[in-house]
Amino acid sequence: MPLIRQEEVYPAAQYPWAQAVEMVANGAVARYDLVVVNSVAATGSVIPKAAPADANVALLHAGIIMVATGAAADGEKFLAVPWVVITGVDTNAATAAGYPVYLSTTAGGWTVAKPSGANEAVVPVGTVLVKDATDGAVMLKPGTGALEGFTKVGTVTVASGGTTSPTVALGGNFANGRAVATINEATTNSTTVRYVTVSVAGDLVVELTADPGASNADVTYVVYSGAL
After folding, report:
1. Structural domain contains residue 157
2. Each residue of 164-210: pLDDT tens digit?
3. Which terminus of the chain has a smaller tally of CB atoms within 10 A, N or C?
4. Helix (H) or strand (E) segment spanning residue 219
5. Alpha-carbon distance 221 to 101, whole Å?
6. 30 and 56 part of one domain
7. Distance, CA of 117 to CA of 32 (rounded, Å)
8. Which residues are within 8 A (CB) of 96 and not within 5 positions of it... i.e. 6 or more apart?
9. d(CA 60, CA 82)
10. Which of 140, 168, 192 is the last residue of a domain?
11. In this structure, what is the dihedral angle of CA atoms 129, 130, 132, 134, given to the nearest 10 degrees?
């Protein structure tokens, strides 16, 4: 048996090959796709199957996200790793290097713009290393811990003289979820949040104790999907 000396063990650079996992593509997979594990290759098999991950698909609720190191057609094998460094990409929309990148609503993709639409989950999957329109770099590190649900943070403005019960359509991924909310007024009118709920349709409803009155009020909320 060969002897491996410590000085012959080199740290990982672009890929941590020692942590690679063999998978079977559940749908076409491209190189650097963020993939979510969702089944096994066959009855009794120990090889997992993975599909391109999507920030608005409920499949993520119980998934493990990794990064594909190569392309594979549906049913073909490929290797996935917990992190990878990608160069030559557009990261110019990021505020600066060091800011997060998120799982995109495009299957397998990532984005520097935080998802904000209905049914779109905010799932950080990495960090911007270089901010540039053509020579940008990111480190994708979605991690291999199970993602047990979605979280969304947002703000809704209640106008002066407006409703005391603003509603925000979050989408079915947040149906029957849990939420917390705080209120900030430009002028103190002793208005507070009475309660906040999420309906079966995924609509966030905020009930205030009173109309904001002479000034607008910003209600900031954090919503957790039903899986949490």
Report:
1. yes
2. 778 888 888 788 888 999 888 766 667 888 889 999 888 999 888 88
3. N
4. strand 217-224
5. 21
6. yes
7. 24
8. 128, 131
9. 16
10. 140
11. -80
